[in-house]
Amino acid sequence: MCIGGFIIGGTGNKSVLLRALGPTLAQFGITDPLQDPTIELHAGNGSLLSSNDNWKDTQQAAISATGKAQPDDKESAVLSNNLAAGNYTAIVRELTTWMNRCRLLLPTSAPAVLSILIRTS
Q1: Nearest CA among 2, 4, 42, 6 for reference residue 115
Q2: pLDDT tens for the chain, residues 1 to 121
Q3: Which of 65, 88, 111, 115 has the least C-beta neighbours within 10 A?
């Protein structure tokens, strides 16, 4: 399981794409990556804002339009277009096991977003 926190600062709402890579990591030498990662986005108060398993199941057109679509159909992503300033948490896991490696990506060019990447095994 991976848990990553990030803070959105500044004014106005921000668009954020969260990506959970699994099988793709094997080509970079990561052994035993998640085979079918899921992702959840939580607000600072813990409430679930969005979740995804298999990025093409929801938001396929919007995620593809960012140019940062997942390389593997079993990987997960969440695109949130209206996140206000505040604290957020993303949780990546595979439902069948807790002992694999994953990587949570927050690709963004917005200077008002601070990202933290955590990889656990």
Answers
A1: 6
A2: 778 888 888 888 888 888 888 888 888 888 878 888 889 999 999 999 999 999 999 899 999 998 888 899 999 999 998 899 999 998 888 866 555 455 555 555 444 444 444 444 4
A3: 111
- The architecture that CATH gives domain 2-114 is Sandwich (2.60)
CA end-to-end span of the chain: 7
